Amino acid sequence: MKECIKIFFFLLFSTASFGQKAQIYKLEKLYDPQPSDGNFVSWKNDGVLIPIRYDAKSSQRVKVSYSGPDADIQLYQLHEVLADFSAGNCGEAKTNGTFDQVKVPDRAEKRPDLTFDASGKSQWLILQVKTKSNAATGKFPFVINFLEGGKKTEIKGSFTVKDRVLKDPLLSDFYTDFWQFPVAMADYYKQKPWSEAHWLEIGEMFELLCQINQHSITTSVFWDLYNTRVRPLEEMMIQVKKSKSGAFSYDYTVFDKYVELAHSKGIKGQIVLHNLFPWNGFFFFYDESTSAVQSIQTQPGTPEYQTFWKPFLIDFSAHLAKKGWKDKTVLFIDERDPNVTMELAKWVKNISPGLKMGFSGDFYPFLSDWIADYSMPMNVVVDPGEMKKRILKSQTTSLYTSCFEKPGQPNLLLTSDYRDIYFLTHLAKSKGYNGMLRWAFNLWSSDIMNSAIYSDLPSGDAHLIYPNGQVSVRYLVLKDAIEDLSKLETVAKVSNVSEMTNALNRYFLINIEAERYQMLQAMKNYLND
Predict the structure, then answer these.
(1) Three-state SS at 412
(2) Residue 142: which domain range?
(3) What's the rounded Cα separation, in Å, for the pair 129 and 262?
(4) Helix 419-430 crosses helix 513-527 at what angle (to 10 degrees)?
(5) How many folded domains does the chain comprise?
(6) Phi and psi at residue 368, in whole multiples of 5°?
(7) Which H or E run includes 76?
(8) CATH code of the domain covering residue 83
């Protein structure tokens, strides 16, 4: 009897023609795929991601078509990227460790003509079906057809279209903040930083960021957030020069163009400037007396630090005021000593009261008053009274994950379960936060198209997109998760959602996968009821 059921299931949701085969899978771990029942629920104007594995018997071009509820269709061909199971290991722990590896279908190449090359082997695809706002309400069958060399293969399933229209997720009050690495992009493409070709790539990066409700423009004083090697003056985002007389001057040409390009692509939330309190303590400038880039290593509070940064803060504040950007600029500190950070914030405020401060790290009540933009690890529990203070002061708060999350905890790594991305967005919302932060959008290695193995980071920690305009499955899932939050905001207008959101904020869900996914399914059922 069990074998008959299995055969029936296979024939219903996957079909084969002359050796060709296609099947729908659950959106969980595509490197460990689980078959789907092929039944989906959506609102109108709501996108649904359908993972498909297509087994080809030739190397011909395959044409994909869809019939079902009226919808817009987008096809992504997935490419495997080598990854490792090293969650929770950073720096030396990763470098000195040995971890199992797996190929993950993560790199997503958009196929606007709905075709792909079969290559005579199994191919992962994602079909995004976005039901139109005027689609009929009810349960309807759908068919996905694959035409390869004159031979047709089809998948059948069903859509239940709810009588609700999803508002534009870009209007959601939930934001993302992915830190950008434009110089790493130039290195990958072997372009001169800030060349015409480089600016075209940056513009495309901003377009992809805008689609996931990106809130911030990541800027730096020198070359990037961490400045692990010395580069030429002209590659600095803000060119810092020291004259022979010892006076500092600053060229904001690249900085201004970067911010203005982001604005033109729809990213207007805030400008975040890094480098004031870097991990390595190095600061850089072009010394006209030696005709070379020089560096100093010091810490906040020292005379050397204040001599370097005070003239910059005065000049930078004046420049921002002239551009009309001062009220939305944040000087960001990344996981540094909270006591030193607070003293630094006081010093900055004394020099330029209008500048805001940002901080990522554990929550410290004594620091909170000084931090306009506070991002915390997902396991931090903030006292409700402290959270209320931040809300009343219109301070923003976000959640972040990093390489430190252990196996089994939610993250955005290549080996994470995609359901965790939905959980993390809902968790941030249930905590009363404004959004979610990630430290790297595109810190690419030279072989990122094929391998996400890093010596000091778990796979996927340093990127959400790929070169050549390609995104990741994780990026597509994050977009879909933001749509879920848009649904939640809509439902909240007609019913009380606090009981459901509070249930999702239970601490044990972070560490127990089965309970987490059960809770997440309950939320999805609630939104689609």
Answers:
(1) coil
(2) 12-164
(3) 29
(4) 70
(5) 2
(6) -55, -40
(7) strand 71-84
(8) 2.60.40.10
What's the rounded Cα separation, in Å, for the pair 314 and 321?
11
Residue 1: what pLDDT?
43
Distance, in Å, from the CA atom of 179 to the CA atom of 226, rounded to the nearest integer, reads 12
**Exposure of 229 by Cβ count < 10 A (0-12 exposed, 13-18 middle, 19+ buried)?**
exposed
Q: Say whether both 350 and 426 belong to one domain.
A: yes
Q: How far apart are CA 25 and CA 30, in angstroms?
A: 8
- Of 133, 149, 164, which marks where a domain is finished? 164
pLDDT at 57 over 80: no
In sequence order, the 6+-apart residues with CB closer than 8 A to the CB of 387 are 397, 431, 432
pLDDT at residue 224, rounded to an integer: 95
Residue range 366-419, pLDDT digits in tens: 999 999 999 999 999 999 999 999 999 999 999 999 999 999 999 999 999 999
Please give the structure tokens belonging to residue 475: 């990026």
Strand order in the sheet with 329-334: 175-178, 435-438, 396-400, 373-377, 356-360, 329-334, 270-274, 216-220
115 lies in the same domain as 187: no
Kindly tell me if the per-residue pLDDT of 119 is higher than 90: no
Residues 478 and 374 in one domain: yes
In degrees, rounded to 5, the angle at the alpha carbon of residue 84 between the alpha carbons of residues 403 and 103 is 135
Mean pLDDT lowest for which of 48-52, 206-210, 310-314, 488-492?
A: 488-492
H or E element: which one contains 66? strand 61-67
The DSSP code for 60 is S
Which pLDDT belongs to residue 19? Answer: 61
CATH number at residue 443: 3.20.20
Tell whether 242 is covered by a domain: no
Asked if pLDDT for residue 137 goes beyond 80, the answer is yes
- How far apart are the C-alpha atoms of 81 and 454, rounded to whole Å? 13
Residues 202 and 84 in one domain: no
My answer on whether 419 and 453 are in the same domain is yes
| 403 and 518 fall within a common domain | yes
Q: What is the rounded distance in angstroms from the CA atom of residue 379 to the CA atom of residue 418?
A: 19
| Residues 208, 218: Cα–Cα separation, whole Å | 14
Q: Is the domain of 38 the same as that of 182?
A: no
Give the Cα separation of 379 and 292 in Å (integer): 45
pLDDT in tens, 147-178: 998 899 999 999 999 999 999 888 888 999 99
Residue type, position 479, single letter: K
